[in-house]
Specification:
Blueprint: H1 2-28, H2 35-59, H3 69-75, H4 78-96, E1 107-109, E2 116-118, H5 123-152, H6 157-182, H7 190-210, H8 222-247, H9 252-260, H10 262-289, H11 293-317, H12 325-339, E3 344-349, E4 359-363, H13 367-376, H14 381-384, H15 390-397, E5 401-404, H16 417-420, E6 428-436, E7 439-447
Antiparallel strand pairs: 1-2, 3-4, 3-7, 5-6, 6-7
Helix pairs in contact: 1-2, 1-5, 2-5, 4-5, 4-8, 5-9, 5-10, 6-7, 6-10, 7-10, 8-10, 9-10
Length: about 450
């Protein structure tokens, strides 16, 4: 794989090297310059970008499958990681726009409205423009392939490709029309300006369609959505900064890359404008959906708990777990704690023979603290004044009970710090009786 990637990189570098030779020849023989020459250069650059994109896909953009359970749990946060990575890519793009300041370039003064422009009047300037242009093309390939990847996340491949290809086609027509206008193939005037404006608006509309349906957003966790808010806002700002840096008037980056490849310069400007719109939509969509995240997570947890309970039941029926009561109690207690998202849980099961030791299991709580709660309802002052104890209440009613701590100025049932401090964080508890032939044999307790 890596050998193939190196081959693609070398092939792309050779094509860009051939373009450099062509530019040096064109510098000596200006007669070959023109619209046809610029189209040939754009074609060579496009082929080089294609090979570089294939190399980047092999090296950095091959994601692992999410079919396995451990990776499926990470699938919901994968788009968040892509948005975070975009911050680095867009930040690097802004830095690339500052690169022309590191090179000595020749400028030529023109009349208003374009007083200055970068002109390849010397061989060093031609070489400098091509070196910076090659790095800029690599940056553009990275941005485009990253944008392609995030558009495919949790989307129908057919419709996602259709929307992206439609956007790319509109951007290509816009860049080609801008090239024709610059080379005077299309005469300037009101009609030309109208067509150009329509193409710009069509590009903006295609960008809105790309960010219209974010199918991966509802699956993001609450923490993931908070990260999305921060990074999508940062990405929108960086994309706008890159748009200004590469598309603003009288800015060295705009003048240089316009001279190097006007066609791909327009593609870059349209891409950064699209990214600014896309991440702005991600930001507002995340902001509006943040309030419903808790409900979605709760429903998802309920479905997962039901699946685990079904799997656990089938495991019991197909194994010898029923013969190992301590292990069975441990499994049930852990499952109850996980299914209810509780902080602690414990189980107590008495055998028919009172001479045998009861089976007990504790998760997230000690035996001593659990015993005080079962016998004295410690930590639940209101409940302690209404019932003798949770254990006795289960024996009496044979029905589940719920205890909740309410804000009260009254003293606790056992107010001493030594007795109350261990359970001070508990605010609610559910106790369920374990019955056998209408006889209470114990109880299952979960608490938050």
């Amino acid at each position: 794989m890596r050998t193939r990637a190196v081959f693609y990189i070398v092939l792309g570098a050779l094509i860009l090297g051939a373009q450099l030779v062509l530019d040096l020849v064109a510098h000596s023989y200006t007669a070959i310059q023109g619209a046809v020459f610029e189209l040939v250069r754009a074609g060579l650059q496009g082929v080089a970008m294609l090979w570089l994109a294939r190399a980047l896909e092999i090296l950095f953009f091959r994601t692992s499958s999410v079919s396995r359970p451990d990776e499926a749990r990470l699938a919901a946060d994968w788009p968040v990681r892509l948005v975070q990575r975009f911050a680095l890519i867009l930040g690097a793009s802004v830095l690339v726009s500052l690169a022309p300041a590191l090179f000595t370039l020749s400028y030529r003064r023109f009349a208003v409205p374009e007083p200055f422009a970068i002109e390849p009047t010397t061989f060093p300037t031609v070489i400098s423009i091509d070196i910076l242009g090659a790095a800029w093309l690599m940056m553009l390939v990275l941005v485009l392939i990253s944008f392609w990847q995030i558009n495919l996340v949790r989307q129908s491949p057919r419709f996602a490709r259709r929307r992206f290809v439609g956007w790319a086609a509109i951007v290509g027509v816009l860049a080609l029309f801008a090239l024709w206008r610059a080379e005077n193939v299309v005469p300037s005037g009101a009609i030309s300006l109208t067509i150009y404006t329509v193409l710009v608006l069509a590009t903006a509309l295609a960008a809105l369609l790309l960010g219209y349906r974010l199918a991966w957003l509802p699956h993001a966790s609450r923490i993931g959505k908070r990260k999305l808010l921060a990074f999508s806002a940062l990405d929108a700002i960086l994309a706008t900064a890159a748009l200004v840096a590469f598309g603003g008037d009288k800015i060295p980056a705009d003048m240089l890359f316009e001279r190097y490849a006007l066609f791909w310069q327009m593609v870059a400007v349209a891409t950064f404008g699209t990214l600014a719109i896309y991440f702005a939509m991600v930001f507002f969509s995340t902001l509006f959906s943040l309030s419903s995240t808790e409900l979605v997570e709760r429903k998802s947890a309920e479905v997962q708990s039901l699946a685990k309970l079904t799997r656990f039941s089938s495991d019991i029926l197909s194994s010898e777990l029923l013969l190992d009561l301590p292990k069975l109690a441990e499994q049930i207690t852990s499952l109850a704690c996980e299914a209810t998202e509780s902080d602690c849980a414990w189980l107590e099961l008495h055998s028919a023979d009172d001479r045998e030791e009861p089976v007990r299991c504790y998760v997230g709580i000690g035996e001593r603290a659990a015993e005080r709660i079962m016998e004295e309802a410690e930590g639940f002052p209101d409940a302690g004044r209404q019932i003798d104890s949770p254990r006795a209440e289960l024996d009496r009613t044979r029905r589940p009970i719920i205890l909740q701590r309410r804000i009260s100025t009254q003293q606790y049932l056992f107010p001493s710090p030594e007795q109350a401090l261990g359970n001070k964080a508990l605010h609610s508890m559910v106790a369920v009786p374990l019955l056998r032939k209408d006889e209470v044999r114990g109880g299952l307790y979960v608490a938050k």
